Amino acid sequence: MGQKKLIKFAAIKEYENVLEYPQGMPGKWNAFFQELEKETTNIALDNLAIAQPSKPLVLELACGRGEYAVGLGRKYANQNFIGLDLKGNRIWKGASIANRDGLKNVAFIRTQIDQVTQYFAKDEVNEIWITFPDPQLRLSKAKKRLTHPKFLRLYQQFLQPNGIVHLKTDSPNLFLFTKTVVELYGLTTITATDNLYSTEFMQSDKWEDRYAIKTYYEGLNIASSNRIHYIQFKLDKELPIELDEKLKEIIAEFEVTETHESLARNGKQAME
User: Fold this and answer.
1) Fewest Cβ atoms nearer than 10 Å: which of 128, 193, 198, 260?
2) Annotated catalytic, 101?
3) Catalytic, out of 46, 85, 134, 236
4) How many CB atoms lie within 10 A of CB 103?
5) Structural domain of residue 208, as residue ranges?
């Protein structure tokens, strides 16, 4: 591991707004943010009270550098935001900015996404943002897509009834896959567009300022599509597991084989 990464890993261990694999946190996020607001040092997680959130709690999954958690935190002081990612050196960036700018409504969890249910109580989270995740383009990796029913069932364990999921991606295939999931399982689409920054959409009544927050990976334009795809939907129905096989059959029709990693390499080479 490089020296810079080691420095960042050491730094986040001292940050009050970063928790690494925290134990016993479900139901305690309201109390945690209250302590963060008071600038409490060495917050004793075991002593935090379990209570219903007094502010909406919004989760950014695969947050990377946390641009969305930080950006939303700036815009909405009356809400709390958590970015979740495994890469501590990436989390360091967002956590450092939140600390620098005094954003006491922004925090980060370092952990794997498939362990997300360990950190939140039933109905504790209001919304989920998924911003530029690895689209896992191979059909064999479809279950690793963060909008696959496998993951949506995890989110349902802590998302409020009719809770909202946002996906922002430069991958047409992940966008199409997610739309297919929403339609197949009868979920409610709120907004969907295959060209988020088009003049038509930006001038429509569906546009919101929070859509304009841009991540580092969005700027790279890895997919070389020059289009950002966005879908917002309610996780408001049960997801029958027997439909998973039908989903697999449907998505096989638009499978692509180039991986996200190779796209990233190609994008990087094109920039050099």
Assistant:
1) 198
2) no
3) 134
4) 21
5) 3-271
